[in-house]
Predict the 3D structure of the following.
Amino acid sequence: MPQHDGPDRVLTRELRRHRALAQSRRRAGHQPVDATLRRDQGGEPDGYAQLSEAAFLNDFAQDVPAARAKVLYAVQGRISNELFTGRTTNAAWRDKPTFYAVSKNDRTIDPDLERFMAERMGAKTIELDASHLSIVSKAREVADLIIEATGG
């Protein structure tokens, strides 16, 4: 009996491919954003992380005007380390319509991985010439997608 790739096997294969791409980029001298996460606040690791200023300005918000990006850096929240290790047990996209904005210049999540996730969800997808912060740099386009998602 032939073995078919189930959704988990496909996702695992894609994640491995993207990890290999990231390793290749590292060897070429490109520093991934996650390598610049500060995982403590001047002491022991506490389960949270935050982007360094350089990573935020150059790789997370590189298309946001500098003054605004600096303000956003100053007020950024800390993220739980569980973001990188947690698993979704009941994905809403399996039962609900989905919409996705691929940020073509994203240096935080590989745009090819974004495209793969959007396709896997069956999402109505738009592509933006934007950094990870497309909601800031391409606010009108993201707002239009949100309005479309609400049926408006």
Q: What stands out?
A: The helical segments are 7-27, 53-60, 66-75, 82-85, 111-121, 134-137, 139-149.
